[in-house]
Amino acid sequence: MKMSLLSSNVQKRRDMILNGNILNTLLFLSLPTILMGMVSSLIPLSDGLFLNHTSGYLIAAAVGFGQPIINILNALSLGLGVASMAIVGQINGTGDLEKVKKVSTQIMVFAFFIGILVAPTSIIFASIVSQTISPDIAHQVFLYLSLYSTVIPLLFMAAIYNAIKNATGQPEATLIRIIILLLLKIIFNTLFLAIFHLGIIGAVMASLCSYVIIAIWMFYDLFIKKSETQLVLKGYYPDFALLKKVLVLALPSMITYSLINFGFFLINMEVEKYGAIVLTAQTIASNINTMCFTLPSSIGTTVTTMVSMNIGAGKPENAEKSFKYGSLVSLVISFVLIIIFLPSSNFLVRLFQNHEEIVKLASHSLKIYTFSIIGFGLFMVAQGAFIGLGRTRLPLLMGLLRVWLIRYIFIIITKKWLGVDSVFWGNLVSNWVAGFLFYYIVTKTPWVSVIKKDKNSI
């Protein structure tokens, strides 16, 4: 079946996913998701470039240190998003668009209010963390985390928007959103960092202004624009039975992502002990490597969509094939990225900094990080398959295994001999072990939804 990439006909997308060639469909749906991954990875890259060139490495280090804490809170929205994608995707698989719209509206409103409740937590984190780190960056970290609380509710809205669009086979909508966000971030970073030189305050202002505009655009796209899946707020009343089901399904993923990012925060605490130069180098390497990690892991989102819809339509064989093809595509992308990024690591680092000590350390760590892509890509595809089945508890355990049981313990045990290198090698070891182990577990898992028995009551 031929279809334009920008076609938004949900019924045609559903038919393509359920009845079309699986590999072609996977590649077709993955293209906007991969492009979205590329664009989204450019956002921290552009932020890092502006911060390093306009505000210095101390400000860049403070933002790099604070980012995992922001991600702990944002992880709640991502966990809610993956559960929403599984539920909406399986309902969409049955062809009931009215129920898709009802459930999507309930989740979007619920998520936004959860974001408002969670936002003040960022200020609490800021007060606690700033008391325990180097005075060189403590005040800047406090400012960044406190001010960023204003952005948190909008992150929740964005996560659910992505979930709804992916679950209805419209990943190009999320691509358009992220492209607009990148352009806005560049414009506002130029204004607040390059022109007004506002430092940490400017970095937060750039994010806030960008997300406010994006939120207005998302509201228009979901609630005002005429489409098959246009949501309606009129007559809205919370469906507590539905929201309870969503929350129960989302809770494992919310805990997973939060604990994983808390693990990254603890790792940053270990790196911070070596000083701001080392922390900046590690942040630069991570920002560059985000592009590598995002591309193969983007396949996992498409796998979730295809698995959930095929399971909802009673086609478990197609769901399993979607997972296997997704794993293969992820591996191919990983090898291509290694070939491209490995020889260019020094050049990429110098785009951020010319401080020789930072360049040397960041280039060294980037070369180790790059080989982690293979295991990470497999991990994310396997996670996507489990989420599509509604099995969100095992990803919780595997996420903890990857970051805590393998990586963090590896760092603690080996730092005596490896020093800061223990962080870089811990990344490699944890992703490979967790990725291949998770892949094996998926191959032994029945292709049956655990939320199928509750579907009629959703």
**Structure class:** mainly alpha
Spans where pLDDT lies below 50 across 5 or more residues: 452-458
User: What percentage of residues falls in helices of 4 or more residues?
Assistant: over 70%
Query: DSSP strand (E) fraction?
Result: under 5%
Q: Termini separation (Å)?
A: 31 Å
Mean of pLDDT: 88
Q: Any idea what the radius of gyration is?
A: 21 Å
Please give the largest β-sheet.
Answer: none
Overall number of strands:
0
Count structural domains: 1
What would the principal axes of the Cα set say about the shape? Answer: globular
Give helix and strand order, one letter per element, not per position. Answer: HHHHHHHHHHHHHHHHH
Protein name: Multidrug-efflux transporter
Subcellular location: Cell membrane
InterPro entries: MATE_fam, MATE_MdtK, MdtK-like
GO molecular function: antiporter activity; xenobiotic transmembrane transporter activity
Provide a compact summary of the structure.
This protein is mainly alpha-helical and 458 residues long. It has helices at residues 10-19, 22-54, 57-94, 97-118, 121-129, 135-148, 152-167, 171-195, 199-224, 240-272, 276-312, 316-341, 345-350, 356-370, 373-388, 393-418, 421-443.
How would you characterize the overall build of this protein?
The protein has 458 residues and is mainly α. It has one domain (21-457). 82% of the residues lie in helices and 0% in strands. It has 17 helices and no strands. Helix 2 (22-54) runs parallel beside helix 8 (171-195), helix 7 runs parallel beside helix 9 and helix 10 (240-272) runs parallel beside helix 16 (393-418). It is globular and about 60 Å long. Residues 452-458 have low confidence and may be disordered.
